[in-house]
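Chapter review: from sequence to fold.
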Amino acid sequence: MLFPVLLIMAPMWINDGKLDDLTERFFAHPLPPQTSFTDHSADGSIALRGNGNHCDYLVRFSLTTGLSEKEIFDYYAKARIRGIETEPVTVTVYGPMHSSTFGQIGHHNRPVVVELFDSTDAGFDLRCH
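The token string follows.
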């Protein structure tokens, strides 16, 4: 009974480890100037997004910064953080466009979310089929 469970779960555990490694690479990279973590956690997931047999890895980090979204994006685009396999991850930066709290917070403590995305072959991970 244990073997079928291991057969199903092992690919998921391997991919979970890859997601954890990606998260750690982001945490290991120095933050941009005037920037700090909102909290030292990340929201990560592995799933099939769209069509096909592939695993999509998505990790989001909440930051507070005095920099613009473009400056944060440029910083992480230049960082070229290694993805799940070898290529750098795709970076997206989200900030408040018309948030009612934005004016209250001030431009030196702007909240942003940095999202890392990568995709690999599905292998035997059932989440990715």
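Two observations follow directly from the output. Strands lie at 35-37, 43-47, 54-65, 90-94, 110-121. The mean pLDDT is 90.
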